[in-house]
Structures are given as structure tokens and as C-alpha cells.
Amino acid sequence: MLKRSRLLLCGFLLARSGQGFDTGHHRDMTRNALMREGFGQQAIEIVVLQNWLTDFYAGQENVSIKALFAETPDLAAIDEAEWVHFDNLVNTGPVRTYWNTLIQSTAAQMYRRMQSKADDPLAILTLLGISLHAVQDFYTHSTWIEAHHPSPGSPFLALTWMDAEARQLLPQDPIRTGIYPDKNGPRGFRHADLNKDSYERENWDRSYALAYIATRQWVRGFRAFVEANKPGFWARCIQDARITGPELDTLTTGLDASYKVSEVLGKWKGSGSSGGDVARMMDPYYQFKKTVSGYKLAFIKQAILFELSNDLHNAVTMPNPRVLRPLPTGVPLPHFDPVPLDETAVVLSMPMVKSTNSPNDPFDEVNDHSMYARSTFQFSGSGDFSQEFVDATQLFNSGRKPFKWQVIWFVPNIVTDVAIHIELWNEGASSPAEDHRIDISGSPIDPTVGLHYLLDTHQCRINNQTRPCDRNNMVTVQGQIPPRGQMSFSVETQMLARP
């Protein structure tokens, strides 16, 4: 059995015998932000997995599976994880208390763990994943966006809570977060009323962009904090942490479970598969549940979640809360400078897909309501940077446009060309192995669509032809070979702005 000991060493992991932004959005922004902050791929995936565990355990009371965790260490995590989502704060004062507690508790834990005799990068990456979940949730669970009264077409707001506090720019409107569970709150103030968890919700794009900026700010602040207290540790042991052996397979299994379980429960990116497709999640769910992995042990048994959750619980429920194990006297808290506005958001929107099969086609079971899209973005600079995005299955939407499939990817302002590759898939009934890729290109060689978005001219180059591709000049593509479909999409840019 794996012990609580160091699984992740500096550079290597040794071989050894409901709530919040929906999972897909947490994953996408975290990957994008950590890539921009220089993290290695495996370090990114550990943070992504630990970020998801915060929702995984907090959501168990919403599904009929809590009993599956009886008499296991996981059960305690279910009760603790609910406090890491920035919920139930009725005005600006409690919001400030929660922020201050989150910073103090995260810093105190990080300091103790990096000062221990045994380097434990997994603990630091776990703490980053959990704390980032709370940071990201603030911008989707609160009235922060609405309090700044964005106008249609205006740039994405890049003013974080820390920016506003430091510059005394808090909005005059009270800042609050939704009441959860919804049954405990008055209409208009419930989580269901205020959240912007997926792209089905108004202002989702603005909250996503701001949570992305806040993610980078949080990581930068704690990188400086770690380097000030243990020089070289961040770059050597955190940013470039690597894995080998069985724990690499376990990481892959966990990430696979995070997608399949969230998708079936309708928590990947808004409404999607559920009900009859529950078979898709059972194997990865049970595989993940029964696995005794270093990632789950770090999350549960090392008290990382419990200590942070206990402090945040007190911040929500007590009049004068304090961090139970604060930083030693004389150790300063992290400082969070504004993130430079040196990026542009590239926005891919896919407002229409449909099947174009005829009843006589061999794939006539490919219906509009079971499609999902995969898209890959890439640019070249000092290195090659790419990221894949998977959109929600548009179940129960037959014959109409899909829910607002939208991808937001941030690239440096110096980038002039982003390659985008789009695939359309039909979801199988019980397993991803049954999924069919749908022809949307009309090419007998490649059923997918590839294009280059040119940021200097705001046009798309497709099949060696350059054309406008904004929302007023939608690109429509159609396949010819069954299973075949039709898709319309646009690509645009959006700037960031800070008062």
C-alpha cells in the first residue's frame, strides 16, 4: 500500500509497488494559465486533477453515490470539500474575510511543507489545485462581474479582487456570492441565480477570462513567496515536477475519470450526457474510486484539504475567524502584483451543428442531439504551445442549435497566427470506444477542419483561402461521407482591460 510519504520528488515521482465552474472550464483555464507560467505538462496535470477532486467530493451529496464511500477516508472529504467554493457570503465584508483567510491558510500550509526536511512537491501541487479552485470559483459564484456593469462588446475585465483591494477600487455595489444549497436562499440570491459555471450562463465568458487572470496572479504570488523562503525550490521541484512508474498511469486514470464522470453528470461544460448514458462513467468511476493513489492520499490523508477547509469553514460561519496554524512571526504573506495585460483572447464559437445523414445512410443513428466537438489550438514562439478543448455533448437538443459551444484561449500579444483544428464527434451509448468522428470537411482523406486564425487581420485561412470569420461572417462547413454533418463557427479576438 502506498504510504503518506513523498511520492513526488524533485523532478520525479518514483516508481512504486455541482459546485464551481464546471470541470471542463476549470481544467481549460488551469492548463492555459500554468502553461503560460512555465509549468511542465505533468505538473499541470497534477494541479488539474487536484482541482477537480475539490468538486468531486463536494458534489457527492447531489448524486446517489455517497453511500459508496462509507467507512472510507473519502467520506470525510465529502463533508469538508463544500467549504472551498466561495459560497454563502452575503456582502463585501464576509467576502474580504474569506479572501484573507484563503491567502493566510494557503501560505501557512505551503510554508510548513516546503520547510520540512523531506521535499514534498506533491503536497504543494495539491495545495495549488485546491486553492485555485476557490480562487476561480469566486468569479463565477459572485456578483463581481455584474458590479462592474460590463457593456456588450467591451473588453474582458482584468481587475481581480486583489487588484481592486490594493488600489481601493472595490465597486460601490455590495459583492456577494450565491447561497448554496439553493433551498437555503431567497430567490435572486441562490447559487442557481448567480453562478456563471458554464457557457449556458450569461457572462460566463467574462467570468472565465477574469478567473484565468486570477489563476496566473495566484500562481505568480505564491511562486515569489516560495522563492523568497526557499530559493530554487519552485523551479526545481514544483514547476518542472515529473512522474514515472505506476503513478503516471494513475494520473491518466484520474484525469479520464474527471472527464467521463463530469460529462455524464452534466458538470463537464453545462448540460450534457446523463441518464441513459450513465454506463459511460461507471468503469472510470469505479476504477478511480478503488485506486489508492498518491494524489488521493495527498488530498485526503495529508490534511491539506482538511486544514484549508477548516479555516474557510470558520471564515464563513464565525464572527472573528482566525487561521488555526498561521505563518511564523516575521514571515510576510504573499504579495499579488497585477498580471501584465500582454495577452489576447482567441474565441472560437460554434453556434450550429447538425447531422446531414439521410435515412439510407449506414450511420443514420447519428442524431443532432448526441454530438460534441474537440478542438486543438496551437501557436509557435519560443516553443510550440498547444491545448485541446472538449465541448459538452448537446444531449436533449435534437434538431436545434447546440448550447453555446465556446472556447477561449489566451495567447501572447506577439502571436500573429494560431492554428485551430476542429473535430465533430457523435457520442456512443455506453463507451467512448463507440464514438464516431463525423465528416465536416468533405475530404475523403481527413473528415476534420483545419484553419489558421490571423490575429493581425482578424481573418481565417482555410484551404489556402483567406476570408473574414467573425460572428457576422460565419464559416459553414459540411461533410460528404457518412457519418456526416454540418457546422458553423466563428473566430474572433477579445482584449483585456483594467481600470
**How far apart lie the N and C ends?**
53 Å
Q: Per the principal axes of the C-alpha atoms, what is the gross shape?
A: globular
The percent range for strand residues is 15-25%
Number of helices: 14
Q: Whole-number radius of gyration?
A: 22 Å
Structural class, from helix and strand content? alpha+beta
Q: How many distinct folded domains?
A: 2
What string gives the helices and strands in order?
Answer: EEHHHHHHEHHHHHHHHEEEEEEEEEEEE
Low-confidence stretches: 1-9, 11-18, 62-71
The percentage helix is: 25-40%
Main β-sheet: number of strands, strand sense, barrel status? Answer: 7 strands, antiparallel
List the keywords.
four-stranded antiparallel beta sheet, 499 residues, disordered N terminus, alpha+beta, seven-stranded antiparallel beta sheet, single chain, Immunoglobulin-like
What does this structure look like?
The protein has 499 residues and is of the alpha+beta class. It has two domains: 8-317, no CATH class; 343-497, Immunoglobulin-like, CATH 2.60.40. The longest helix has 26 residues, at 204-229. Helix 1 packs antiparallel against helix 2 (41-58) and helix 1 packs across helix 9. The chain has 14 helices and 15 strands. The model is unreliable at 1-9, 11-18 and 62-71 (pLDDT under 50). 37% of the residues lie in helices and 17% in strands. 46% of the residues are buried.
